[in-house]
């Protein structure tokens, strides 16, 4: 009569296949995490560049004195990895200027974000007349 052998445990091949599957899964997971972190960093760069360019446009709008030409600079102590360039040019209508603000990476000078808009330049004389008329209407109310 034959006795039955109990087979408890795993064979060497089963263990090796399980380790191979686990290794492939971990490599895929590591690649996925790396891709997610890169996307997060790129998104952060884009957001900072958008906010800086919009702020540059708003400071030009608030200043009101738009001179044609190109200027550039760094983005300040808190944003050392960014540079900016702005180009102001005539748009073909009196008082209308085309403004182009480009934010670049400091490392490789690659453009991160570009914002273009049109701004009206208000002259000092128009501003004075406008403020006087506001005072008159404001005093009459």
Keywords:
141 residues; Pantoate--beta-alanine Ligase, Chain: A,domain 2; alpha+beta
Mean pLDDT: 82
- Largest sheet, strands/sense/barrel: 4 strands, antiparallel
CATH topology description: Pantoate--beta-alanine Ligase, Chain: A,domain 2
CATH class: Alpha Beta
The number of distinct β-strands equals 4
| Secondary structure tally, helices | 2
Neighbour order of strands in the largest sheet: 1-2-3-4
Please give the alpha-carbon distance between the first and last residues.
Answer: 116 Å
CATH architectural category = 2-Layer Sandwich
The sequence of SSEs as H and E is HEEEEH
Structural class: alpha+beta
Low-confidence stretches: 127-141
What would CATH call the homologous superfamily? GSPII I/J protein-like
Helix content: 40-55%
What's the structural domain tally?
Answer: 1
Cα gyration radius (Å): 31 Å
Q: Choose one word for the global shape.
A: rod-shaped
Beta-strand proportion = 15-25%
Structure description:
Mean pLDDT is 82; it is low at 127-141. The protein has one domain: Pantoate--beta-alanine Ligase, Chain: A,domain 2 (2-Layer Sandwich). Strands 1-2-3-4 form a 4-stranded antiparallel β-sheet, with helices on one face. 49% of the residues lie in helices and 25% in strands. 9% of the residues are buried. The chain has 2 helices and 4 strands. It has helices at 12-63, 124-140, and strands at residues 69-74, 82-90, 96-105, 111-120. The protein has 141 residues and is α+β, with helices and mostly antiparallel strands.
